[in-house]
Amino acid sequence: MERERIALLLRASKKFIYKALIVIAAAGFLSFFYSKGLLSLLLKKADIKIYYLSLPEVFLSSIELSIYAGLFFAIPVVIYLAWHEFHSATGIQAVQGYMFIVAAIILFYVGSLFCYSIVLPSGIKFLIDYGKGNNITAMISMQRFVVFCSAMIFAFGLTFEVPIVLLMLGKVGLVRSKSLTKTRRFAALFIVIGAAIITPTPDIYNMALLAVPTYLLYEIGILLMKINERRQGIR
Questions:
Q1: Fewest CB atoms less than 10 Å from the CB: which of 67, 107, 115, 136?
Q2: Does residue 124 share a domain with residue 49?
Q3: Residue 227 sits in the same domain as residue 136
Q4: What is the Cα–Cα distance from 60 to 62, expressed in whole angstroms?
Q5: What is the pLDDT of residue 11?
């Protein structure tokens, strides 16, 4: 039975990866035609000037931005495909599965929007201001700017998935709320360390912009797990 389950998961993984890559590639191809507009949105929020340091950098950076944008816009379909291919292995009912899908999509875009609207501008401003003085002038390349912004936005989007991940783990019986409650202090420590690594600045304000929402989402995840366990009669 265990071998059959592993074989089933491997087949589902192959199907998921194949379908997801097709969707992301299609979304990335369409995003390429709007890459200049997407770059303008990032620049408008960052309020800085960027430069290209080699002749093909603009074209290659546009392709890179299109790939990130393709993945960003394809997230709803990717999440649905993940559920479609793996739901049989989770044992979660269809209605609950679709609720997970909707919640995961909303949380991802809320986290991304939070980063784009608040964290990214303040983080970039801090780094630019820190580099001023002593005849030092910022000369940020287009490629590095695209990677920096994209990585930050995706990091926040994925971080906001914490309650959904915890609830899913609880649903399939891999984690219980009691164990998470006992290790709350360690979770808080790891969240702070993770926020220090992910956020672009060393100041407490920008770290807190990620650490505080993440910890709150962690607590929400534990609460949802407790509600689910009570419904299932688990103590």
A1: 136
A2: yes
A3: no
A4: 5
A5: 80
- Domain finish residue from 131, 153, 175: 153
3 state SS of 153: helix
How many CB atoms neighbour CB 146 within 10 A? 25
DSSP assignment of 1-19: -HHHHHHHHHHHHHHHHHH
For residues 214 and 191, the answer to whether their CB atoms sit within 8 Å is: yes
Identify whether residues 77 and 142 lie together within a single domain: yes
84-100 per-residue burial string, b: 16 or more CB within 10 A, e: under 16:
ebbbeeeebeeeebeeb
- For residues 90 and 15, membership in a common domain is answered with yes
Q: What is the pLDDT of residue 136?
A: 75
Q: Which ranges of the chain does DSSP label H, i.e. alpha helix? A: 2-32, 35-46, 57-90, 94-114, 120-131, 142-159, 162-171, 177-182, 184-198, 204-232
Domain boundary among 101, 131, 153: 153
| The total number of structural domains that make up the chain | 2
**Residues 97, 199 within the same domain:** no
Encode pLDDT of 156-175 as tens digits: 999 999 888 888 887 777 77
Domain that includes residue 217, residue range: 161-235
Between 106 and 135, the higher pLDDT residue: 106
Q: Which of 160, 189, 176, 156 is nearest to 222 (CA)?
A: 176
- On whether both 33 and 138 belong to a single domain, the answer is yes
pLDDT digits (tens, 9 = 90+) for 119-154: 888 888 888 887 676 677 778 899 999 999 998 899
d(CA 166, CA 187): 13
Q: Is the pLDDT of residue 1 over 60?
A: no
- Do 67 and 141 reside in the same domain of the chain? yes
Residue listed under structure tokens 């087949």: 11
